[in-house]
């Protein structure tokens, strides 16, 4: 097996003696898209900060692959409103050469805004600009904290599709937080449901049936996600590996609705 890009083993983060992230383990490799879901205050951002190395871990271990380049997309672009700043200048502040910056802007569909002021961008344009800044680093791992915030519903679907395409282009891993369960269920490989500890994790169609998921999000949410269920000829074990039901190990014969 190839070396994971990031591996968390029993990671605990405490604030004022309270575990906000409680013994969380996860592993992400190239090609993975892992989405962290969970209610407000569940510790999702704290967990991501621990991966980025900007949050002290009280117990457990965060291991990153040697020389790992992380591209981080924060929740929002926070800038001093009085500071004049063009998209070009903002991108150059990343320290990447202009041609790399322009290529990244083209890839995320906002190159035409090169000379625009960042203060005048729409919510969706800002998110694509942040994604371009992360992309210009040619990351091995993209870490996104609610990338579709402030983006309308069509824009959200397009953004998730773009993230999948970038994963394919860069052959990188992706770890993101999302509150949009419908989009997550439709566009993610693996979901981790966090509520301080990992309530449940696995493939979207499977976890929405998990009693821990239903406890966390309620029956209404779980039922509304039923559209994404599909029939498998196999099950997944806790590590996400395929466990054959028919004897055809690894065979995948999904019947999607
Ligand atoms: N620096 C800090 N000091 C003290 N408490 C903190 C700190 N950062 C976060 N917390 C607390 O830790 C808990 C988890 O916060 P976190 O931002 O990780 O949650 P979240 O799952 O990302 O929430 P949301 O979905 O609302 O963004 C919250 O109760 C928050 O108040």
UniProtKB/TrEMBL annotation:
SMART domains: AAA
Chain ranges of the ABC transporter domain: 6-221
Top-level taxon of the source organism: Bacteria
One Gene Ontology molecular-function label: ATP hydrolysis activity
Swiss-Prot/TrEMBL GO biological process terms: response to zinc ion; zinc ion transport
Pfam families: ABC_tran
SUPFAM superfamilies referenced in this protein's UniProt entry, alphabetically: P-loop containing nucleoside triphosphate hydrolases
Key words of the record: ATP-binding, Cell membrane, Ion transport, Membrane, Nucleotide-binding, Translocase, Transport, Zinc, Zinc transport
NCBIfam families (alphabetical): PRK09544.1
Name of the protein this chain belongs to: Zinc transport system ATP-binding protein
Source organism of this protein record: Marinobacter persicus
High-level lineage: Bacteria, Pseudomonadati, Pseudomonadota, Gammaproteobacteria, Pseudomonadales
């Amino acid at each position: 097996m190839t070396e994971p890009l990031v591996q968390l083993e029993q990671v605990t983060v405490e604030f004022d003696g309270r575990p906000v992230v409680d013994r969380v383990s996860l592993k992400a490799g190239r090609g993975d898209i892992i989405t962290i879901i969970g209610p407000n205050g569940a510790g999702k951002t704290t967990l991501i900060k621990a991966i980025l190395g900007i949050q002290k871990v009280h117990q457990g271990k965060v291991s990153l692959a040697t020389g790992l380049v992380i591209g981080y997309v924060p929740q929002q672009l926070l800038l001093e409103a009085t500071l004049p700043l063009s998209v070009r200048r903002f991108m150059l502040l990343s320290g990447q050469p202009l041609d790399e910056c322009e290529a990244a802007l083209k890839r995320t569909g906002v190159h035409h805004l090169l000379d625009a002021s960042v203060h005048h961008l729409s919510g969706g344009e800002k998110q694509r600009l942040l994604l371009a800044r992360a992309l210009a680093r040619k990351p091995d791992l993209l870490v996104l904290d609610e990338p579709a915030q402030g983006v309308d519903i069509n824009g959200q679907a397009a953004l998730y599709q773009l993230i999948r395409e970038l994963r394919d282009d860069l052959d990188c891993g992706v770890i993101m937080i999302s509150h949009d369960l419908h989009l997550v269920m439709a566009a993610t490989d693996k979901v981790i449901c966090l509520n301080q500890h990992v309530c449940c994790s696995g493939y979207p169609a499977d976890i929405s049936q998990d009693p821990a998921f239903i406890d966390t999000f309620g029956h209404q949410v779980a039922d509304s996600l039923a559209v994404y269920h599909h029939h498998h000829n196999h099950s997944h074990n806790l590590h996400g590996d395929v466990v054959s039901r028919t004897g055809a190990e690894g065979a995948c014969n999904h019947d999607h609705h």
